[in-house]
Amino acid sequence: MSSKHAPVMVKPGIGYFPGSVNIGLVLGKSGAIIIDSGLDTQTAKKIKKGLDELAQPLKAIVQTHAHADHFGGNAHLLSVFPEAQVYAPPLEEAVIRYPVLEPIYLGMGAAPMAELTNKFLMAESSRVDTLLPIDGEVEIDGILLRTISLPGHSWQQVGIVVDQICFAADGYFGVDTLAKHKLPFLVDAHDTLLSLVKLLESNYEGYLPGHGPFEQSIERTITHNIHCHRRIMDRIEALLAHDELTLEQGLAALCAQLEIQIDNMTSYVLYRTAYMGYLVGLSREERISYRFHDNQLLWKKR
After folding, report:
1. Which structural domain range is residue 278 located in?
2. End of a domain among 121, 148, 170?
């Protein structure tokens, strides 16, 4: 009978610790490699118990991207396994070492308000020992890992492929996760869609998103993701066809349509950034444009 801390193994030596954020697991020649570390110390302690039950020391943490819910467990794990090595993509590495950068960029560059320095937006700092190639290979503890570029949700997010199992990070979301958030977080909708097409055209044996169930076939889920993003982009384009809108006005109108009620600063900056990411995507597709009038930045349909 497996314990509540035991990982789910999808093939020999490869599995994951399920949770609100899935943590990938690869067994190397002398210990365990995990892919991301979850939100906080509490998550990290569960991972530690799971590794203890496997009698595996932690050899490495491989970061897919630098959002707090994906590297918040690093600090505790590195205090327990100080010899473990941390790998991360180049631009994401800066945020992992200096987590205050996340609330700074979410706050449009201003000094972060106190409400934004919470564990959901600002994890504890972690060292990064080695930069990952964006599209390439790296050998860790005798295991070959392939990195695939999956930008859009974050600037230099990567997926990790080991023995035909793809740890896709937030390159796509489970269907239930999309339904829950309604306006999924991203920084560039255009890149997000390109990453989804890349995953759709791949042919791995199994896929694990950062949020959602493991699947052997992801055609239905990826198609659902693509349709979700396209529907949101179409909604925004329709709003901007009716009126020229500021970012704030457009965000409020879209949230009203999606039945989203923003009532705290954390939700506000996340939804605002996501909305701006959709504007960026629509602009790159030349579907919208902007102009300045009366000291306001106004967006409109082309």
Report:
1. 229-301
2. 170
Nearest to 166 by CA among 128, 198, 192: 198
Q: Which ranges of the chain does DSSP label H, i.e. alpha helix? A: 41-54, 68-71, 74-80, 90-97, 101-106, 175-181, 189-200, 219-242, 247-258, 265-284
CB 21 within 8 A of CB 120: no
| Residue 145: strand pairing partners | 138
* Residue range 269-294, pLDDT digits in tens: 999 999 999 999 999 999 999 999 99
Residue 1 has pLDDT above 70, yes or no: no
Contact between 119 and 68 (Cβ < 8 Å)? yes
Q: Helix, strand or coil for residue 88? A: strand
Is residue 155 located within the same domain as residue 265? no
Entry field: residues in the chain: 302
- What is the tally of structural domains in the chain? 2
What is the pLDDT of the chain when averaged over all its residues?
Answer: 97
How far from each other are the two terminal CA atoms of the chain, in whole angstroms? Answer: 60
> Mean per-residue pLDDT for 1-9?
80
Tell me, what amino acid is at 188? D
The residues, any chain, with a CB within 8 Å of residue 150's CB and separated by 6 or more, are 157, 158, 159, 168, 169, 171, 195, 198, 199
**Both tokens of residue 181?**
């958030």
φ, ψ of residue 117 in degrees (nearest 5):
-100, 50
* pLDDT (tens digit per residue) in 88-129: 999 999 999 999 999 999 999 999 999 999 999 999 999 999
Confidence check: pLDDT of 16 > 50:
yes
Residue 260's domain is classified under what CATH number? 1.10.10.10
pLDDT digits (tens, 9 = 90+) for 192-201: 999 999 999 9
How far, in Å, CA of 213 to CA of 236, rounded? 30
